[in-house]
Design brief:
- The protein is an all-alpha fold and 93 residues long.
- Helices cover 66% and strands 0% of the residues.
- It contains four helices and no strands.
- The longest helix is centred in the last third of the chain and has 24 residues, at 69-92.
């Protein structure tokens, strides 16, 4: 397949929040893979706590959507593609 590099315009706060969510999901996947035991609760807390820095601009997300709905949607699409790629890479490895 021939591929083409493309550039999109996205929303800063959406992408930063998405980065945090992707890191959280990636960190949680191995922890909850076979169920959660009490010994894994600290690891879960650390994973959830790692999302906090990414929440600093969450209040601006609605404004970003109002200002440029297309950039907002492109940001979400970009993040969904990254999540899919992340999980496909883990399954193949």
């Amino acid at each position: 397949m021939e591929k083409l590099d493309i550039t999109i315009t996205g929303c800063k706060e959406v992408v930063e929040l998405g980065d945090g969510i992707i890191k959280l999901v990636t960190a949680l996947k191995p922890i909850v893979k076979d169920g959660v035991s009490l010994s894994e609760v600290p690891h879960l807390a650390i994973a959830v706590g790692s999302l906090v820095p990414y929440l600093k601009g969450v209040d601006k997300v609605g404004d970003e959507f109002k200002e440029d709905p297309e950039a907002f949607i492109m940001s979400i699409a970009y993040l969904v593609c990254r999540l899919i790629k992340e999980f496909q890479a883990k399954e193949v490895a």
